[in-house]
Amino acid sequence: MSVVKQLTQNCSSQRHGRKSRSFALLTGGRSRWFGFLAFALCCAAVCHTSTIPIEPIAVRYVEGEIHGFLTLRTLDGAIIADGDSTQATHGGAVTSRLVFHFKDGSLQDETTVFSQKGSFHILSDHLVQKGPVFKRQMDVSVNGSTGLVAVRYADSDGSEKAVTDRLEPPPNLANGIVPVLLKNIAPGAQSAAASMVVAAPKPLLVKLAISAEGEDWFLTGGARHKATRYVVKVDIGGVRGVVAPLVGKQPPDTRVWILDGSPPAFVKSEGPFCDGCPIWRTELVSPVGPLSTNQTPQSKQ
Question: In whole angstroms, what is the distance from residue 130 CA to residue 34 CA?
């Protein structure tokens, strides 16, 4: 039996006033310290009732048609992927697509459909991650209305597997639209909350604790602009959330810079794309050209 599962059962016993036999067994000899640790983890899990709200973020700026260009870099500045960000509106729905083509042939492709009447609501999200840069090849589809999540992935031996589950989608689901939500945080607000479906590979609903960490200046040509730096923390919750930092499974924080003003704008972000991925930097980029007839994109780089 896994430690997490055992702790879950022990915590259940503690909630109902029953002494767990496992704790009694762990209190003797060299197991005494582990027994104390397990008891402490259980108490933390019992008391760990997340106070992160589930209210959706209200629409302050309506999303429209866009086509932007992005680069993905390591933190030391090396370019590892080129990206395209597009949005198209169809009636009351917006289709947002973000694609990164990696230099090693890997691909990340995410398409999100959402509505924006009063607040943002995810209708569907489809994420594909494949290629050597990703430790686990993934194809994840989320239905934001029904909560149905379908995951197809390649196991460590290369065999394909599939998992389907149904979750309770909260009203502040943020898959594929975190920068959109950050642009709509009310002026002066120091914190906000969202939720996200992740595949580990079994579907899991986590909470995102968003807070304004500070302000930074950046340049466009010779002009200076101020951006708010937001930090997005993953709150796994429950016993898993208590154990995760101890076993090195707590996801790293993501930081996103949003240009102040009306309307606000995305500047850049730094964070992991997947479980086990390093922190990468996503930045806007402007086209360079036109190229002469004897130039190719490869020679230009």
Answer: 40
Give the orientation angle of helix 32-47 with respect to helix 3-15, to 10 degrees.
60
Please count the residues of the chain: 301
Question: By C-alpha distance, which of 233, 114, 254 is closest to 184?
Answer: 114
Contact predicate 197/203, CB 8 Å: yes
Is the CB of residue 10 less than 8 Å from the CB of residue 22? yes
Bond from prior residue into 203 cis (ω within 30 degrees of 0): no
User: 3-state SS of 157-177?
Assistant: CCCEEEEEEECCCCCCECCCC
Rg (CA), the chain: 22
Phi, psi of 84 (to 5 degrees): -125, 135
Mode of pairing for the β-strands spanning 93-102 and 148-154: unpaired
What is the C-alpha to C-alpha distance for residues 130 and 201, in angstroms, rounded to an integer? 14
Q: Tens digit of pLDDT for each residue in 203-254?
A: 999 999 999 999 999 999 899 999 999 999 999 864 444 434 433 468 899 9
* Contact predicate 127/273, CB 8 Å: no
How far is residue 33 CA from its own chain's centroid?
A: 35
DSSP state, 221? T
- Residue pLDDT, tens place only, 58-97: 999 999 999 999 999 999 999 999 999 999 999 999 999 9
**Residue 178: strand, helix, or coil:** helix
Return the structure tokens found at 213.
């960490």
* Token representation of residue 26: 């762990």
Please give the backbone phi and psi of residue 179, each rounded to the nearest 5 degrees, phi first.
-60, -35
Please report, in angstroms and rounded to a whole number, the separation of the first and last CA atoms in the chain: 53
SS (H, E, C) 91-150: CCEEEEEEEEEECCCCEEEEEEEEEEECEEEEEEEEEEEECCCCCCCEEEEEECCCCEEE
